[in-house]
Prior knowledge:
Shape: rod-shaped
Number of strands: 0
Oligomer: single chain
Number of helices: 7
Amino acid sequence: MSGSIRSQIASLAPTMPAFDVHTMLEDLYTLSGFLLFELAAALAGILGGIGLILALVGVFGVVSFTVSQRTNEIGIRMAMGAAQSSILRMILRQGVWIISGGVAAGVLLALAISRLVANFIYGVSPYDPLTYVSVTAILGIVALLACYFPARRATRVDPMIALRYE
C-alpha cells in the first residue's frame, strides 16, 4: 500500500519527498504515540499493587503486634470463660478502627489530589463514586483479611501459657 501512497503523493506534489511511511497502528505504538501512556498506566497499576501489598503487610504487622502485646489480657479473658468468637470480634473490631481511619484519610487525600490529575484521566471523572467505592471496598476486604489471621491466632491462646507469659 505504501507504493500507491507514494505514487499519489508524487502525482499531487512531485517535489515533496515521501519517506518513512507507516500505518497508523505502527505509528501509535511508538514513543510519540500511545506507547508512553500505556507504559505509564502499567507502571501506575504496578505501583498500586505494591501499595496494596504494603498496606496489607502494615495492617497485619500492627494487628499482630497488638495481639502479642495483649496476650496476657486475652489469656485472662479465655480463663474467665470468654468464647473464641468474642475474642475474634474484639481483635477484628480493633482492626476495623485502624482500617477505617486509614481509608477515611486516604479518600479525603484522593479527593483533594484528584483535581491535579484530572487532565491525565481519560474516560473517568476524577470524582467518580464507583471508583472510590470499589477501591475502598477492595482495600477494606484485603485489610480485614490481614486482620483475620492475627485475630484467629489470638483465639488459640492457651490461658495457662498466656498467664505465665510475663
